[in-house]
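Subject: Interface between my chains keeps coming out wrong

I've been trying for a while to get a sensible model of this assembly. When I model each chain on its own everything looks fine, but I need the whole thing in one frame so I can look at the contacts. Pasting all components below, labels as-is. Any help appreciated, I'm running out of ideas.
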Amino acid sequence: MIQQTLDRELDRLHDLWSDGLSDTYRAYLDHVQRFAPEVQQRLALAAALIEVGVRLQGLGGRAAPPTTLLMGDLCLARGSRLLADSAPLAVQVAFARAIESVSSAAASEQPAPATRVLLQQSLEAAR
Amino acid sequence: MTANRLEFATSHSTQFVDITDRIRDEVKSAGLRNGRVHLQSLHTTLGLAVNENEPLLLRDFQTLLERVAPAGAGYEHDDFTRRLDIRIDEPVNGHAHCRQLLLSGFATLLVEDGVLVLGRWQSVFAVELDGPRHRQIAIQLDGDFARADRREMQESLIEVELTRQLMVDPEPVAAPMRRLVEAGGKRIRPKLVQLTAAVGPRSDQLRATELAAAVELLHNATLIHDDYVDESTHRRGRPTVAAAEGPERAIAVGDYYFAKATRLIAEIGNPGVTSALAEALEAICASQIDDVALRGSYPGDRESYMRVIRGKTASLFAAACASGAMLSEAEPDVVGALRRYGDLLGTAFQMADDLVDFSPSSGKPVGLDIRQRVLSLPLIYAAEDRVVGPEVRRLLAGSLGDAEVGRVAELVTASDALPRVRKEAQALIDEAVRELEAIELDGLRPTLIGLARSAVDRIS
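Reply #2:
Try treating it as a single job with all components included. I did that and got this:
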């Protein structure tokens, strides 16, 4: 059950939560255990939002229609803001580099590394 | 020669306002090395004086003025039964006019080696004689200037940093972004970062330039996605990334530079700066969703419009100002005032941008916003207009070909929508300028005021 503190971070995104974002969020929970308890859920949500965001945009595949792209953009922006508020600098940088890597591959029409693996590795940054 | 206005509000009927530091700011900002500062009161009850700023002496001056021209002493100017064309709120102020006669409305001061030439005890006063009021003094500086070189250097630093950042990126993402960056743009956001980063005690122009370039990259990344969403074919006179290379590439390039800018900002290592810009980016994305949603009820209403443009445009202006100030470790009240300045400036900037859509001399095709159903305050006001509103709403409800777009533009121009929006934008700039009045800005006030005024001057 997601805590009330996270509920407000889902403003405009509640539909996504019941449409796969919650499962993605849970996939990151094991990877945030090393962080302080008060930021673990926010970091897992940040990672989940970024993974779902690039998927919604159709990055590396067929471009999403405009309204879906905008929803993906919001996911990325909110994930980024959650990281800015809660993650150590090394993790913020690792996340940004992960998105750079995925989007650069997409622009080059090269196979992109799996986003989830990259983001999970990013959570290990500076361990 | 440079020209400007010093604006301030007075709070008492008679008041000596020391404007010496404001004049020094103007000299420093303009880079006047050797020359003259000319001041002229723009009011008949506001004088100028050069004297000593000692509180008891100022009371002596006030007493002297009151003795020579006491209030209520039967001035003919105050006999409204004998005067023509008086306003309903005409003040009883014959005494103030007479007192002004004892002072001067003009002053010329000298500048040597970049320093205002004043004696040890001399200060420059604007003397309010009929306050409280909002006042203006015209100021002109002439002589030998040096600062232009420094400003140009700051601007070129941003270009060098942008070029440097794009050189290290993979070509499939760098090439489209390079085309967009090289096509121009006003660079207002990075300029705001550079300027405000000089306000606090730890001014570091190189770090400020890195941050400024990152903010510009972030802005351009949002434009690349916006152009796909808006189905725009051209930006800054060149094909958009989506139009030239397809939406898939546009999404990838936008994401790459969103991430890169976020990383560059984080690597600067100031958590306040990182959070301020992350919040702005989130506001931009949320407002873009609202903007598209509102197109179903096009042209919408003023309240929705203000909510959207504050998120889409003003939030990054505000964050640029606040983050520059935070980078230089400015005091929280300075950061707050600059954030509000940026918010007001960004809002006015967007309103001015709306007006450009109706200006045949702007270089852009008239009516592009109408064709693309972009949220626009002049259209909202024209649609509410009692005379032209019904036809505007009817046309906007149908399909928009060249004839319909042209007719809507005609109707908007015929209504009072354009002057109304211009007036609102100018009022916001006035408010933005007032935010700068109470904070210490180390000589940057005139530049920030000039930047704000230029945001709406392009549509005056």
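Reply #3:
Confirming on my end. Strands of chain B lie at 2-9, 15-18, 32-41, 46-51, 106-112, 115-116, 123-128, 134-145, 234-235, 238-239.
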